[in-house]
Structure formats: C-alpha cells, structure tokens
Amino acid sequence: MDIRCKKKAAYVNSDEHDIIVYQVEKEIKKLVKKTSVDAVLESLKETKQLCDEKTTCTSFPLQNGDKAKTVILVGVAKAKTDMNAFRHAGGEVSRQIKSKKLDSVSLWFTDSIDEESAGQFCEGIHLGGYEFNRFKTGDDNKESHQAKITIRSSESKALKKAVSEARIHAEAQCVSRDLANTPANFLTPKDFSDYAKKLFKGTDVEVKIHKKKDLEKMKMGAFLAVAQGSQNEPYLVELLYNNASKKKPTVLVGKGVTFDTGGISIKPSKSMSDMKADMSGAAAVIGAIYGIQALGRKTNVCGLIPLAENMPSSSAYKPGDVVTSMNGKTIEVINTDAEGRLLLADALCYATTKKPALIVDIATLTGACSIALGDVASAILGNNQKEIESICNQETKTGERFWQLPLYEEYKEYLKSDVADLLNCSENRLAGTATAAIFLEHFIENYPWIHLDIASMMDSSATKGFQIKGMTGFGCRTLISIFDRN
Ligand code: BES
Ligand code: ZN
Ligand code: ZN
C-alpha cells in the first residue's frame, strides 16, 4: 500500500473512501460532533458498536452525490497490555481495503491519536496486507490489490517521519517473513547467500560470502559438523554497514538452519515442515540490516549469518562425535538436533574478532522456549543487564515482547562432558532455553552479549490483526530498534 500525508480537506466533499480512526475510550462524543455522518454514528452508538471494549472496524456505504463511497470506522480500544492495538487495527483495515477493492482512500486520525500510534497503525496496514503467494498459480499468484492511502488529519513533520519509518519497518519485517516462509527446496544456504547479494546490491551494505573452504580455514569445526550431512554446502554471510566513524560495531548473529530434520537424532514427522523456518533468526538479521540502511542510521553494524542444512545421511555427524569450534573448545555432540548452537558457537567466535561493542544473537533455538513462554513472548538472556533491559523496554514501541530467563551458574553442571570440554546439550530436559544460552556463553569471551530465543514466536497459527498465518518475521523490528537510541 502507498501511504502519504496531505493537507486537511473536508472529507464529506471528497469522492475518496474514508477511514476514520478514533480511540474508543476518548473519542466517541467528539467524533460524533465533528463528522457529517452523525446519523450513522449515532445509530452505531445506540447499538453500542462504538463503545465496545474491543477494537471494532465497521464499514458502511455512503452515497456522496452520484458516487458511492465507503466509510470505515475504526475504534481502537487500547488496553494497557495490548501494545499492538493500533497495529492490529491497521491490519484489519488493510484486509478490508483489499476485499472491498478500494483504490483511493483518505485516512483520518482523530486528535487524541499521537504520531507514534498513527505510525503503528500504518505499520499494521503494511504488515496486515502481507501475502505469500509465490507458489500459487493462476489468479492467486497475481499481485494483490494495492490502494493509494492519503492521511488527511495532519501534515506534521513528526507524522510524516512516523509514516515513512513505519513503511520501512514493515518492509524489513516482510523481507524476514518472505525468507522464513520460503520452502527449503527453494532456500538452500546458497540461495540465501544469493538473495543477500541481490537485496543489498547498490546499497551501503557490503556483502561478504564465506564458503565451505573459508570456514575450514577458520577452523569452524562445530558449524561444519552440522552441515556435513547435506549435499548443500554451508555458507557464512557477512553483512557490513558502516555509517559512523570510530564506533565499535554491534554484531548481529542469526541462526540460519535452512532446514532442521534433527539429523541422526531425527525429529518426529508431525510439524517437521515448520523447520523450513529454522532460519528465522537469520531472516531477522538480514531484515533488520535492510531496515537500518534504509533508515540511514548513523551506526556500525555487522550481520553474521551461518547457513546450513541439518540432514541425516551417511556423511552426517553423529551422537557421540566430538567437534572443535573456532576458539579451540571441544564439544561432545549428544544430540544432533541441538545443532543451532553449534553453528552459532563458531559465528560468535568470529563475532569476537570484530571487537564489538555488543553482540546480539537471535535464533529459533529451543522448543523449551515455547513451553516456558507460550506464543506471546520470546526469551532474552545475556551477560549485560543494562542492554537486556534496554531491549525489553523497546516492547512498548515495537510490540515485540521479550522475557528474561536466568543464566544461573548451576546450569553449567548440566553441560559437563566426560570426554570433551562441554556437551552440546543437557542430558536432562531441564531449563532447556537457559542451558542453550549457557552453551553459547562459552564462545563470546567477555564481550557484552544478548541471546534472543525466538522459537516461541516463529509462526502464527491464524491471520489476525497485523499477523498473517505462517511465519512471523518476529525479532526484525526489535533488532532495528536497538539502533534507534544510538
Ligand atoms: N530448531 C529447533 C528448535 C525449535 C523447535 C524451533 C520448534 C522452533 C520450533 C532446535 O534445533 C532443536 O531442535 N532444539 C532441541 C534442543 C534439544 C535437543 C536440547 C529442542 O528444542 O528439542
Ligand atoms: Zn534442531
Ligand atoms: Zn534447529
């Protein structure tokens, strides 16, 4: 959708369709006074549709001279706990615009709606209109209906900025969604690398591709072990965005397992197809760097994306194997399904060579994350409380929730191996998300480090508000928000 801001105009006289967004708690009376559709509003009010506790989106046809037009009234009920109220409302509206095939729409925000909420509504319009139809044929494959939306309520600088940043945030997240939704036969590690080259062509982001022989030279034995069962070779994509002089970089590391069968410790077949999205961390990183460069942030960021396919085969790594990571530590693999941390171990070692100000890794790392937090929040762990809190606090802006889990010393016991420096996972199933983080901590030296486990938020089971059934692209906007404060 194309959204822009233009001067106030009397919407009654326009032929354009109108969307009027108001906040239910505050606005009903004011709105009734202001609009020329009083009668309709009154009757809606009588039927209590305007006063509903929930967000409502009511559309009705109006005759304006000879022309018929549609007015959509969006009452946003912003409960304190729902940081996504405006995004969800925007998402619903987006699908109404599509289903009604409205071409040209005026968007009105009442006075009590601030720029930030208006921006979130626009984010919702873009995200809620997302479709993944690459593999549909015939009519279903066509680019879906797009509307020209003009915001009429104000032309303020702040609103313009919020609206244009909202578009970039949503575009970035849709880069992540597209990648995560793409099936593994169309997104091998090489396909992902090629996509990165294409995406950043002509931008300020430099793309370096490290191939298998480079990984061997760097002695990334843990990463290579995961990849050795597949015919599709591993790649490490390095993205460099330098737009601030003399500033230590922030390194973003994303798990890029393009398909996770579990390897020899094979997964059950139910829902295994979801494992095409086991590169959602990688998708969040590439989406975020796309966003950061599009926003022109004055910062230095390095993205590291280790890519591999975890397959069972005669060449696959096996339970009991001992592998050596880039920093020389030996790891006894007791479960080949705990593969993400092995890729990340080497990528984190490589991250430390950048002498970073901060390392943030993001990964669909443990099923235990969903057991702990359900499908409402992701897990955050790390060695720097200030950075953890700062990321958690972004949730009011991004609507992406992170909940901190502890890194207790005692968990270290769970990873003791009889034959190597450490086990790749615990022999029991206790504190699965935390022990995975404890494992990663062995590879970050003492650099400030945050680990985000987004397994719980990887997919959405239904289309609702700005969420579209399928892979969510979660985490991308949080990563972008880290650089809002720089
Ligand atoms: N990719 C999975 C984690 C996952 C599960 C992500 C469900 C998204 C949805 C990861 O590689 C994995 O299999 N982890 C194991 C670790 C265990 C063997 C210690 C798990 O969670 O069972
Ligand atoms: Zn796995
Ligand atoms: Zn995995």
Summary keywords:
486 residues, alpha/beta, Leucine Aminopeptidase, subunit E, domain 1, Aminopeptidase, 2 domains, nine-stranded mixed beta sheet, six-stranded mixed beta sheet, 15 helices, binds ligand BES, binds zinc ion
Topology summary:
Elements: E1 2-5, E2 17-23, H1 24-34, H2 38-46, E3 56-64, E4 67-76, H3 85-100, E5 104-109, H4 115-128, E6 148-151, H5 157-181, H6 189-199, E7 205-210, H7 212-217, H8 221-227, E8 235-242, E9 250-254, E10 256-260, H9 280-295, E11 300-310, E12 322-324, E13 330-332, H10 340-352, E14 358-363, H11 368-373, E15 378-382, H12 385-393, H13 395-398, E16 402-404, E17 422-423, H14 432-441, E18 449-453, E19 459-460, E20 470-471, H15 476-481
Parallel strand pairs: 1-6, 2-4, 2-5, 5-6, 9-11, 9-14, 10-11, 13-17, 14-18, 15-16
Antiparallel strand pairs: 3-4, 7-8, 8-11, 12-13, 15-18, 19-20
Helix pairs in contact: 1-2, 3-4, 4-5, 5-9, 8-10, 10-14
Word description of this protein:
The protein is of the alpha/beta class and 486 residues long. The chain folds into two domains: 2-155, Leucine Aminopeptidase, subunit E, domain 1 (3-Layer(aba) Sandwich), CATH 3.40.220.10; 172-484, Aminopeptidase, CATH 3.40.630.10. It has 15 helices and 20 strands. The strands form four sheets. Strands 7, 8, 9, 10, 11, 14, 15, 16 and 18 form a nine-stranded mixed β-sheet that branches. The protein has a six-stranded mixed β-sheet with strand order 1-6-5-2-4-3. It has a three-stranded mixed β-sheet with strand order 12-13-17. It is elongated, with a radius of gyration of 24 Å. 50% of the residues are buried. Residues 32-39 have low confidence and may be disordered. Bound molecules: ligand BES and zinc ion (2 copies).
